[in-house]
Specification:
By secondary structure, the protein is an alpha/beta fold. The protein is built from 15 helices and 23 strands. It has a seven-stranded mixed sheet with strand order 3-2-1-4-11-6-14, sandwiched between helices.
Length: 540
């Protein structure tokens, strides 16, 4: 079976492109790969700084000159990902082609065996999740404060997916404006939109697909209380339409590792992925250094950080958000714990709900479960742990604690805190109204929903916390303790001579999500993707 591999690349770091190409070469039978087309998308010397694209081209040409089947295409930045793919497709002469992102690590050679599914009639073999995004409608605001209601259509995942060339799948992305006259009654079962808009009529040409989208969009419209003005087709939406009703779609098993951070809108997370490679990347690099291809690798191997000396306690404070805690525990079971133990602190009253929640927490099996009287204080418990020796049976020296509205999104969610605690004694991952570089500003603080603190800091500042609150009078308002701690513990720590600072990379929305205070960024789908790996065809 002969195959062409297409790797589009734009602004991702060159390190991840090298990881992708070298892992593919290491873990493939090259007799079955006719050509690897690297479609480098970005500016040329007439339209901007092309140094990154030039470096990528130079790396690919070194491999090509050494006899590896690599061809380089340079495509202009304005045509984007879809144009880079479509341009490469015109050069495909094989019966099948594989789309591979520039941030994917091939883990083993088994992936080529799974191409045999084409012989069973497959038109596509997709790496989970099947869809790179679900159907959703959102109200977007531009820099001029103008709002537009946009419906994003589901797109097939192209991170590592193989396709039958003769199917002529269209990878274009597209958007079209929908006028009021283009609408039909959403209750109608005959069509979704009138066929005045060619793109819409093409995408929804299959009746069952159109009806299903219609029903789901009806729910979306009820949620946002307005009709969409714009329909966005991501690259892969056309392919989703062609495959949605097909029984000729198969899935790869876990044969690759996708560095999701490369697709994140936060540029700093890309740097984090490169500077702090995860266990999959480290495993690949360890294999690479003993391989002939290592001479083509342009970077030194990263030094692994050792946190084994930490005596880490991870704490989650929960009241009634048991569903949030279940998500939390699912991530925790898969996470790199760095030797840490998990304590779930349950703020409880005498209600039946709290008693039922207590039973459910026990079923989740954290290392420790402490039921304390609810006093609406989100920080008091960490000071109480200093004297309650019966709660935790080891002498911890660092604590990273979260409230139950702070949900981890990644398996390395503890790394930013441990990394920061190497240099400072108090760190936070969710910003207050201050900027990251304004830590010396009067009144600076980090939100208390997730903090990392060394035990010695708590021991030195606890007298200030209790004394300064009692000075306000006999009556203590609800949450006054935590409010004072959140706002003043940073100054108290500095007064005692400790270094303080935020995590190097913003924790919330990259490594986790403050879902109670950042509702505008609905990341529940991302949590489901990380936990369960893929969507069903009927779940988009």
């Amino acid at each position: 079976m002969s195959l062409t591999v297409i790797i589009p690349t734009n602004d991702a770091p060159i390190q991840t492109l090298e990881w992708s190409i070298l892992s593919l070469l290491m873990n493939s039978n090259l007799d079955n790969i006719q050509e690897i087309i690297v479609s480098i998308n970005g500016p040329d010397n007439r339209t901007g700084n092309s140094s990154l694209q030039d470096q990528k081209e130079l790396f690919c040409k070194k491999l090509a000159n050494a006899g590896y089947p690599i061809t380089v295409l340079r495509t202009w930045s304005r045509i984007g990902f879809s144009g880079a793919v479509q341009s490469a497709l015109s050069f495909v002469k094989t019966e099948y082609y594989l789309l591979m992102h520039d941030d994917v690590i091939v883990l083993n050679k088994d992936w080529q065996k799974e191409l045999d599914q084409f012989e069973n009639g497959a038109d596509a073999i997709i790496h989970a999740p099947v869809f790179s995004n679900k159907l959703k409608t959102a109200v977007l605001t531009n820099s001029y404060k103008e709002t537009t209601t946009v419906t994003f259509l589901p797109a097939i995942n192209s991170s590592f997916s193989a396709f039958r060339t003769s199917c002529n799948f269209n990878w274009s992305d597209y958007y079209c404006w929908i006028k009021e006259s283009d609408y039909v009654d959403l209750e109608s079962t005959n069509s979704f939109y009138k066929n005045k808009t060619k793109a819409v009529s093409l995408l929804f040409r299959k009746e069952t697909f159109a009806d299903d989208i219609k029903d789901r969009t009806k729910l979306e419209l009820n949620r946002v209380k307005t009709r969409p003005e714009l329909v966005q087709y991501n690259s892969g939406s056309w392919v989703a339409n062609d495959l949605i009703n097909s029984n000729r779609v198969f899935c790869f098993s876990k044969v690759v590792h996708h560095l999701e951070g490369m697709n994140n809108k936060f540029k700093e997370v890309k740097k984090y992925e490169v500077d702090n490679p995860d266990q999959f990347v480290c495993g690949f690099l360890n294999d690479l250094k003993n391989h002939d291809l290592f001479k083509f690798y342009d970077f030194s191997l990263p030094k692994e950080k050792d946190f084994s000396s930490n005596k880490l306690l991870v704490c989650v404070l929960v009241y009634k958000r048991i569903e949030n805690l279940k998500k939390w525990m699912d991530i925790w079971k898969k996470a790199n714990k760095f030797g840490g133990k998990l304590l779930v602190v349950q703020n409880a009253d005498n209600s039946i709900d709290c008693k039922e929640i207590s039973k459910q927490i026990d079923i989740l099996q954290p290392d420790y479960h402490w039921v304390r009287k609810n006093d609406n204080e989100s920080m008091k418990h960490i000071f109480e742990l200093l004297i309650r020796k019966d709660i935790v049976d080891f002498d911890w020296d660092k604590i990273v604690f979260f409230t139950d509205d702070c949900i981890p999104l990644r398996e390395d969610f503890l790394m930013p805190f441990l990394d920061a605690l190497e240099d400072v004694s108090l760190t936070g991952g969710v910003l207050s109204s201050f900027k990251r570089d304004e830590i010396d500003k009067e009144g600076y603080f980090q939100r208390s929903v997730c903090l990392g603190i060394k035990k010695e800091v708590l021991l030195r500042v606890r007298h200030k916390a209790y004394r300064r609150i009692k000075m306000r009078g006999d009556f203590i308002q609800p949450s006054l303790f935590s409010t004072n701690c959140e706002r003043f513990i940073w100054n108290w720590a500095k007064e005692e001579g400790f270094e303080v600072g935020p995590t190097r990379y913003e924790w919330s929305k990259i490594f986790g999500w403050d879902c109670d205070h950042q509702k505008i960024d609905d990341l529940w789908d991302k949590i489901d993707l990380n936990l369960y790996g893929k969507y069903n065809f009927n779940d988009f």
